[in-house]
Fold:
Amino acid sequence: MIFITKYAVVCAGSLLGVSMVRGDSFPVGKVDHMKLYPLTFKEFLRSADVDMYEYLETLKQVKPLPDIFFNRIYDSFLKYLICGGMPSAAKIMLEEKDSGNVDLVLHGIISDYRLDFSKHPASSLIPKLSHIWTSLPSQLARENKKFIYQLVRSGARAREYEDALLWLKQAGLIYSVALNRVPKLPLKAYDDLNAFKIYLCDIGVLRSLSEMPASVILSPNENYVEFKGACAENFVLQSLSSQFDVPLRYWTSKRNAEVDFLLQYGEDIIPIEVKSGSNVRGKSLKVYGDLFHPKYKIRYSIKNLSKDGEIINIPLFLCDYTVNILSW
Structure:
């Protein structure tokens, strides 16, 4: 008698060893793929402050949180912005509450990425990967965050660096957000492939790559304004990418209005504005609304949860609950 035993094999790892490389044949149809994301703030909060996590899990209405709860959750959110979602960095923050050791871990992760740049891709891509990677903080510091090849290297052209960008994207190290000039379904059909923004895979990695001290996150600093907005956008993109299957886009008008992100949610296209502080004044959502009349608009900031007409104001730390909020 012959017994045949079937084994389920689980494999985990980054895409750094397989992106843009021709290897052995792949067992098509026999492998289920599961994409892993950095630790979310919701998951971080479950360990940092379980009472507040359980409180947020009970929310069923769009209404302001009590100040005592809001401030307590926001304190945990600031700690998350320091460590990000890399498990080893988050573990240090949760157990040791030492931003210095968090920095050491994140520096080590970035060093490992750089070593992978010289190990896995074709040799012709290695310097281009390094140039793009190093330029990312400068790209995000610009008011108009459209990716500019000239910031990568003087005289750089798209055809020289597009393979390196694709490698980083397929490896899961960056997000590419395309410009969408005509917000119709499906969004992908109306992308402008010549214009896009690039964000990091993780907010902690972005902070470390930018060499930004943890103290800047915890205390107000007049020199930390433009980049604070970039960090808020990166966090929101990181959070929403793990909740929704359709990648986000962004939108601009001929009248200098820009919507940070467009979210395709079922049959709705939702414009999203991200503010890093409590000042939410701006014309972009209004310009977009007057042109396209969306069912919903979302604004993320550090203001409390509320609904003002068709605008849903969501605190940044509740971004992980966006899919729930839209269903209330």
About this structure: The beta strands are 174-180, 191-200, 249-252, 258-265, 268-274, 297-301, 306-308, 311-315. DSSP finds 13 helices and eight strands in the chain. The chain has a mean pLDDT of 92.
